[in-house]
Design a protein that fits this description.
heterodimer, A: 113 residues, mainly beta, six-stranded mixed sheet, four-stranded antiparallel sheet, 12 strands, B: 112 residues, seven-stranded mixed sheet, globular
Chain lengths: 113, 112
Amino acid sequence: GDSVTQMEGPVTLSEEAFLTINCTYTATGYPSLFWYVQYPGEGLQLLLKATKADDKGSNKGFEATYRKETTSFHLEKGSVQVSDSAVYFCALSVNNAGNMLTFGGGTRLMVKP
Amino acid sequence: NAGVTQTPKFQVLKTGQSMTLQCAQDMNHEYMSWYRQDPGMGLRLIHYSVGAGITDQGEVPNGYNVSRSTTEDFPLRLLSAAPSQTSVYFCASWRIPTDEQYFGPGTRLTVT
């Protein structure tokens, strides 16, 4: 079956540090890949997505590139802010399965001033 | 446009009690789903629906029932609550072929 593995947290960084959260996947079909973010006390929001190999998704300074050869979709940001403190979820969906999402376990990011 | 709404926000149940978690969306999305979120396990799919009158099981359906009588509403029923159902529950909706799922704010359920 489909699965997503992402690095365990928490990840604690100082403001303006570089962020990488690793994500790898296995899928039976050709998946679309997503990063969702969950701020404290809220539901999940789509952060970025990529639908085919070598696509780069980007939003709010975050980026992730769909790497089919390494089955990875690592999240990066050059300079994190305190307001980026949240839980980040990597996820995939396969079109022939109604676009149901399969999630990784989530990575909590804490950014200190 | 409220998006996806969920009620209640918090709930405490005793083992064996029943309750219904409500979910509604006003975006006319065909697809809706329920997830539970447990520490370190991400979100796991409980049940989903591809349209009014059509539901199917996800990864962890045991102990939960759903129905979809209208496009807008997708309630989740716990018939006999168990401590293992202590979790945060999220409802989501989306439209095919759009990939993005829209999530509600969640219901935090504790079963004692």
